[in-house]
Specification:
The chain has 243 residues and is of the alpha+beta class. The chain has two domains: 97 residues, Double Stranded RNA Binding Domain (2-Layer Sandwich); 117 residues, no CATH class. It has five helices and 13 strands. The strands form three sheets. A six-stranded antiparallel beta sheet has the order 9-10-11-12-1-13, with helices on one face. It has a five-stranded antiparallel beta sheet with strand order 4-8-7-6-5, sandwiched between helices. The protein has a two-stranded antiparallel ribbon with strand order 2-3.
Length: 243
């Protein structure tokens, strides 16, 4: 056995970021004010381009900012996050006068058939932040995205996959390579993941874990080597025997 690792897609935890008043109003809007709010967002974008840059989660509104369920992510891939939202039943709310292609926009608004809303924002450093009425909506989106990206990464390596849904909505992906090396990714409820690698020694194991985290748009939080990490190629497994 080789390595157990925790990775997280969050730069800040859910609830730690604030969003501008226009985003808050859109998230809480019913129907009739939607177009006016989207126009307001476009005006804010124009004013932002003319003024100093602001980090994700702090939209210029000319009004005091209001906190809501938000999270700033390590992710930069807007398309991947939007595709996950679409898989969960959300659709993109088009801007009235878009000036950029969808995945180059600084904000994307999403709404489900049930009326649940998400806003995804790209900061000047390229990182993404997600805003919603409830933290559960953000975690559900991130959890789906991390599961999809982990599975896609393992498939790209030619690994055989087995997936299952665990209690409370968690997901487990078990990937096997060459019938021997095994990595188990458990995607937790909040979207963070625990990776467990078997039958791989030394830096190869560490490289596999870091490559998986990078493919998921996440960062390694902790890494604990297991016995086989220190095992040389061809060396028999070390077994501790009690006398």
């Amino acid at each position: 056995m080789s390595n157990t690792t925790t990775v997280s897609p969050y730069e800040t935890s859910v609830g730690a970021v604030s969003a501008g008043a226009a985003i808050v109003r859109w998230l809480r809007a019913d129907t009739q004010e939607d177009q006016q709010i989207r126009e307001r967002l476009e005006e804010e974008r124009r004013r932002e381009r003319l003024g100093p840059a602001r980090p994700a989660g702090e939209l210029f509104t000319g009004e005091s900012e209001v906190s809501l369920a938000s999270a700033r992510l390590h992710m930069r891939d807007l398309e991947s996050l939007v595709r996950s939202a679409e898989a969960l039943g959300y659709r993109v709310e088009p801007l009235v006068r878009p000036t950029k292609p969808l995945f180059r926009q600084s904000q994307v608004l999403l709404k489900s058939a049930s009326g649940d809303r998400l806003a995804v924002e790209r900061s000047t450093d390229g990182l993404l932040a997600v805003h919603a009425k409830e933290g559960d909506s953000i975690q559900r989106l991130v959890r789906h995205n991390q599961s999809s990206r982990a599975a896609g990464h393992f498939r790209s390596r030619g690994m055989d996959l087995r997936t299952k849904v665990l209690p409370h909505g968690e997901a487990e992906i078990e990937a096997t390579e060459l019938g021997r090396t095994k990595i188990r990714a458990q995607i937790l409820r909040d979207g963070s993941a625990q990776l467990d690698v078997d039958n791989m020694a030394g830096r190869t194991c560490e490289d596999l874990v870091r490559g998986t985290a990078e493919a998921m748009g996440a960062k390694v939080v902790s890494m604990s080597p297991k016995a086989a990490y220190f095992q040389l190629p061809g060396e028999p497994a070390r077994v501790k025997v009690r006398g």
